[in-house]
């Protein structure tokens, strides 16, 4: 089901209380991770984003498996590897909002990135959207690099860590 945003590539995606509970448990077990922008406080949203996309497209979650591969991507669908990038929000996403990949995540090298926004009221997730996908090679060809401390002129946001940003309107509709 699509929401009323300006771009058709942003779709509202359902989630269940079981997904929320599972994501909270995974986040608690993981704790703070190396190179985390939010020092581990975004883990819950990240795991919930993975569950939302996995359910939506029928992919297998591999981010909690044993071995090194779990650090390179979150989901597998057929022979495609997928990294989910989730942002917590207080409002629904707009087409001019940015998808972001931190420079510290470049080791991941998935086939595709899928970007998710989850609206929270306090610590409670209330709505979620899949904002689009991009082949990883194409993402970096089109994205703008911002260094920590730079101010993104499109929205006045002061960058917290080196990252590559691309507006949601420049992503592809989810179609893995």
Task: Determine the fraction of residues in helical runs and give it as a percent range.
Answer: 10-25%
Distance N terminus to C terminus?
Answer: 17 Å
What average pLDDT do the residues reach? Answer: 87
Q: Helix and strand succession?
A: EHHEEEEEEHEE
- What is the radius of gyration? 15 Å
Tell me what the structure shows.
- The two termini are 17 Å apart.
- Helices cover 20% and strands 30% of the residues.
- The chain has helices at residues 17-30, 43-57, 136-142; strands at residues 11-12, 60-61, 75-77, 80-89, 98-102, 112-121, 124-135, 144-146, 163-167.
- With 176 residues, it is of the alpha+beta class.
- It is built from three helices and nine strands; from the N terminus they run βααββββββαββ.
- A hairpin with a 2-residue loop joins β3 and β4.
- The strands form two sheets. It has a six-stranded mixed beta sheet with strand order 1-7-6-4-3-2. The protein has a three-stranded antiparallel beta sheet with strand order 5-9-8, covered by helices on one side.
Which properties best describe this structure?
176 residues, globular, 3 helices, alpha+beta, single chain
Brief characterization of the structure:
This protein is of the alpha+beta class.
Write the layout of secondary structure elements.
Elements: E1 11-12, H1 17-30, H2 43-57, E2 60-61, E3 75-77, E4 80-89, E5 98-102, E6 112-121, E7 124-135, H3 136-142, E8 144-146, E9 163-167
Parallel strand pairs: 4-6
Antiparallel strand pairs: 1-7, 2-3, 3-4, 5-9, 6-7, 8-9
Helix pairs in contact: 1-2
